[in-house]
Amino acid sequence: MTAPWTPEQSRRDFLKLTAAAGAAGTGLLSLPAGAQGAPLNYYTWSAAVDLVKSHLTAFEAKTGIKVNYSNAPWAQYRDTMVTKFVGKAPIDALWVSDSWLPEWADAGWIAPINGYPELMKYNADADDFCTKSMQYKGKQYGLTYYSDYMAFFYDEEMLKKAGIKAPPQTWNEVVQQSATIKKAGLSEYPLMLSMARESWLIEFLTALVYSNGGRFTDDNGVAVMADPKRGAQQALQWVTDAVNKHKIVSPACVEIGELNGLKSFGSGNHAFAMLGRYRIRTLNDPKQSQIAGRVKQCLMPAGPGGSHATVGWMRFHAMTAQAAADKSRAANTVKLIEWFGGKAGSQYQFQKMLFADLGSGFGVKELFKDPEVQANYQKYSDIAMFEKQQHLARKKDVIARWFGEWDEVNGTAWQSAILGKSTPAAALKKSADAWNDLRKQS
Fold this sequence. Notes:
Elements: H1 14-23, E1 40-45, H2 49-63, E2 67-72, H3 74-86, E3 93-97, H4 101-106, E4 110-111, H5 117-120, H6 128-133, E5 135-136, E6 139-140, E7 143-155, H7 156-161, H8 171-183, E8 191-192, H9 201-211, H10 232-244, H11 258-266, E9 272-276, H12 280-283, E10 295-298, E11 310-320, H13 321-324, H14 327-341, H15 349-358, H16 371-378, H17 383-390, E12 393-394, H18 403-418, H19 424-441
Parallel strand pairs: 1-2, 1-3, 8-9, 11-12
Antiparallel strand pairs: 3-11, 4-11, 5-6, 7-9, 7-10, 7-11
Helix pairs in contact: 1-2, 1-15, 9-10, 18-19
């Protein structure tokens, strides 16, 4: 759904963190000699491969448990794993996207971890949206190791040139400030929105809906996006007006994907942008951005009756039902999951390594207080804002077995309204009808 880490990122702090992970001591993860059994089979997508391997090496050295590690490209990962599940290939632990949880849990491919207190104890330090994103039908299916959220950025220098003293707090202020910037000739389309049909789109749309006080579905999973009082219609109307009435967003937004939007904002073409929070590292890197040092984060603008809420996403380590059925393998798999998703020794080593090396987000509150994390983030952004917005992040409310099929309809409906081919009300009725029909068929 959201892009995984990219291999071209720098690897500073790699050796230091690897050494720390290897030196970490923990009684929980130690096994008596000869108790390890056959090697565990561990699958991930092809991201942060060097970090995964180094952390696995430290795990094997500490516990004596051997691990066979395999990975597949992100684009093929889901299909690859489904094929392996169906073929009953040996798998013990694996990475899972929050988007796949209902499907994989209902199919019986992954197992709940509620019976393992050594894993469940980490909920006390996890962000709420992360924990909820791993829960399905009253059970929890893993430990998070990576999370992030949709953020709102602004070019501080461009705002100053326009005489604007503070970033917008509401979507109405976004319109007002954009008009001022546009009038000053600083940007033709001050707000960059990526509305292309790609996996990122649901995050952009959900952030808009949540900040307008809306939802796509209610607590019972029934579609409410067509209800004019539930915020989704308000959000879509705002976008259509921004494109067609105020002309502060390019009509080409329906063809602009997240990566091209990032590049356009980083080239100095816009004053504001909605992007994944982790993108601020790239935006403030002089080697990758023409506006480095000028990009700041503020809270997601609020709509009338809305709030500064945004949408979060996460990835987690899960145990297969196959591993759970074998007491010995389950015990070893729990240790592996803890090593990656919990603490390796006294620290959340893997999440800390990912943050230092790739700038990726983390799902535990403790790391916001970590001096090394604070010092690292201070180089390119404000960690207090990072934390403040993360506390307002919420899980997506459209994750269901039929999500993929519905997402096609919903994305097309939003684009249709943005292009003036339908009204926001008609577009969201189409989306709601599709959701409810698919729900009945499930």
